Amino acid sequence: MGVPQIDLIINAFEAERLPHQRPVIEITSGTTGSGKTHLLYYLTAAAVLPTGRTATTHGGGGTVVVLDADGRFDVARLAQVIKTLLLKHQADAQFLGEAVMNALRHVHIFRPQSLQSLVETVQRLPNYLLSPTAGHSSSERSLDLLLLDSASAFFWQEKMTEESARFDGDANAINHPRSTDSKFSQLVGHLRAVQSQFECSVIATNWGLSPAPNQSMGSSFKSFMPPVWQSYVTLRLILERNSVTKFPATMSVEQAVRDAPARQAAVDEGKFTARVEVWGDEQWRDLVKRKMKGMEGNMCFAFSVTEDGVSF
Prior knowledge:
11 helices, two-stranded antiparallel sheet, single chain, Rossmann fold
């Protein structure tokens, strides 16, 4: 995937995968600004950049499909992340703009406006990707990543519509009271079909709303998503922004002024931590538990987000 730490964690879950199904990762945080979408930018850049001496040696040379359900996926920011990766690996500056544009041509962004629209978009993806008349330039590349930002974008909207229909006495709602679960079952079914056909990984973002007890490390969250989605996810990563120590109340004004540049630099550096969600690990298979226990020091990793891009 372009991030060795994530690849290492995924390998521990090898036994959880179905035949021809690569992992399903859910990236969760309890607050905004926790780095979820920036991690998606980096993974996208690493997947679409080509391999070779003139580009990033970590490029996958593949295709990425982005299901931008939140409407926040920023192409300009993605271009900056791609540019930074190219420069890091000594790309030819003369052709830098062209290299960025070539990479962006293999990022296909869809913006569904409802849960039903999302389901239908995923259902039609194979036809779009394989159609010779679709008008895109990725027909000769493999689909490496399918990103869903975010998985719960339409969840509460759908639940409200469902409950309103039941309250109003809608016969269809009464006869089919769990339409939200049904649509998520369809979504997961189509996602599995895409994975089976293209052998791609699925990465989705989500919100952590209900804290769960976790004695081993930081925050944990109980999933509010339908059971079919919870069972579909291979593993969850919890993202948190590293806090910067505040000035103590006893600090003098002179010292605060003196230390302010260093503190601001720490804020600007934007350090984040990602770790494996271990709440609910009783559902892991014994083989997975043994593997994860043997790599406790690698169950988390850090990355930084700056104006120039994302780094590890």
